[in-house]
Amino acid sequence: MSAGQSIGREVGQSRLHALLVNGALFALALVSLAPLLWMLSVSFMPTGEAARFPPPLLPSELSGENYRALFGRTGMGRNFLNSLLVAGAITIGSLLVNTLAGYAFAKLRFRGRDRLFQLLLAALVVPAQVAMLPLFLLMKQLGLVNSYAGVVLPALASVFGIFLVRQYARSIPDELLEAARIDGAGEWRIFFSIVLPMLKPVLVTLAIFSFMAAWNDFMWPLIVLTDQEHYTLPVALATLSREHIMDVELMMAGAVVTVLPVLLLFLLLQRYYIQGLLLGSVKG
Amino acid sequence: MSARLAGWLFVGPALLVLGLFFALPVLSALALSLTDFDLYALADMRNLRFVALDNYLELLRTPLFWKALWNTTYFVVVGVPLSVAVSLGAALLLNAPAARLRGLFRTALFAPVVTTLVAVAVIWRYLFHTSYGLVNWALGHLGIDPVDWLGDPRWAMPTIILFAVWKNFGYNMVIFLAGLQAIPRDLYEAARIDGASRWQQFLHITLPQLGPVLLVVGVITVSGYFQLFAEPYVMTRGDPLQSTVSVLYFMFEEGFKWWNLGRASAVAFLLFVVILAATTLMLRLGRRRGMV
């Protein structure tokens, strides 16, 4: 076998290899996206079209009736606003609370700091659902069952958020803070005018995580919100799907409205999201 | 204001929230699980009685609890290895030198992770519908008769597992990808000179190098999968024949449908113990094998 033949075969093999790798990736991408594309397509079909056989892939005509029915008849517009309000309040509130704590754990010296932080990390082993039953009774005592506050308050601090900020804040040079203190700046001023600007990237990451977690959260809102007026989108959608078993097109419009905001947010700020994911899991 | 005082002031709000809405409820759950808290106690606290370990003992005699524990274990034991394998496979493909359009593929494969679980569960319910679902229609072309995916007790849990793999594999994929990129290139270089095949390189370089990441991913995924709830709530309501009742679904029904909050708290604690035991065992085994 000449050298030329051998190289030729290797090139052929590596071409086949490249074809296999990219073909497999394409297949995986198709499987990942197909359900979402199907959802979008069906949401524009006239009522009853998706329940035909064979199932159509594209709408025969673009119909907006499902979205009109969704926001009109089923009142999902209200649930959309609820979700926006709850997720927005959680994002803003938890951003402040977690950043303050994360920075303090990283840079301020106080008694019992490290032991306290270890205690918080240890608490991560306890599944959130263990707390939910007494939390419901507590909310009942506080008169917060079936209120937005009942969803927002418990989500205002998270160990993950504190951890994320702490990891990032450790890179702030101590000399910078000391210099500010010598110049007579108070701790609040240092936090707002020196620390916060330096933490900007991790704040974006934390904001996306908080918003998405709050938007997608299901079990606790399902427990603490008891009437449709107050439901967030996932709770409303789950309830609707238990009633409208056959109305596929309407349900898909509901799914689109629920999924689209978080999907768009992810597409826009993907870099920050992935960074946060890695910071929170591997390097931890 | 001294830095020391500032420290406590700054962690104060977080501690207040976590203490009041997490630590206190968790401790109360332990106390609650030792009482017969039910609808009568909810109306009037004087009806509350201390029952010691009765809730736990009674649960161990309740067939549906065992069924829920079995279903959840099935979901974990089949679902976790499958999820991790698909994640690793996808990461290897994305990391292959021959891969094109990596950014685009990574985004596409990750997309299901950020979607709202309830919404995509609804989509899957229709895709796997017996008579007009796309899945049965596609299988029909291969000559396979329609399967009653979510209505057949043998198929309901496997369908939910498939759904969970689809929804979650992107998350671990990104973590594996970072792990793969941290493996020194010259290890592969040396192996190739020694004539090692791709499969041998994977077995003797990639897997051992990924050891710690694999262990962490495994532990996180196991603990997450034990907390199965929304999938059966939306897709099957625990049916058919209670084949998809998970431990948390059982807890939810006990607690918020029948208002047996004492019993439900005991369920929550038993699940906690199971998760703790499983993950501790994994970490022990991993350590013994020198993965960490």
TrEMBL record, chain A:
Keyword annotations of the record: Cell membrane, Membrane, Sugar transport, Transmembrane, Transmembrane helix, Transport
Q: What is this protein called?
A: Multiple sugar transport system permease protein
The protein's location, in the record's own words, is: Cell membrane
Give the membrane topology.
Answer: Multi-pass membrane protein
> Does the keyword section mention Transferase?
no
Which segments constitute the ABC transmembrane type-1 domain? 80-269
Keyword Heme belongs to the record: no
The entry assigns this protein to a family as follows: Belongs to the binding-protein-dependent transport system permease family.
Q: Which InterPro entries match?
A: MetI-like, MetI-like_sf
Q: Name one GO biological process term.
A: transmembrane transport
A GO cellular-component term linked to this record:
plasma membrane
Q: Which residues cross the membrane?
A: 20-40, 80-104, 116-136, 148-169, 190-215, 250-269
One short Pfam family name for this protein?
BPD_transp_1
